[in-house]
Specification:
It is a single chain. The N and C termini lie far apart (about 65 Å). It is elongated and about 75 Å long. The protein is an alpha+beta fold and about 120 residues long.
Length: about 120
Amino acid sequence: FSDVLETRSCEKRIKDALRESIKVIPLAFDQNKCTVKGFGAETAETNSLTRFMLTTCSQNGKPFSVGSKSIKAELKSTVDESVLELKVSERHHKGTYQLFYTPKVRGHHQLTITVNEQP
């Protein structure tokens, strides 16, 4: 009987030690590790469908899916201050999204992308 108590006591000490020594931190989206690439992120033609890729990443720099509804993107013309909202489509790869737009105004534009309301 004392062997059973001693075994349970030892198991409890091991479980308590593991609980105290291992801290599990959930992965979270990290806006500083996201990347944008493709022709449409730098240049576009007026009245022509344009696209580029956005990859959202976790704190460890690996692709991390946030869902396309969490992504908002817009182009603001520096010429006439008009704002164009971009369409977002989730790709087959985790954390990869394709953004589409058709610019109407010639000139420079400012691109703003927010993910989970974080720029």
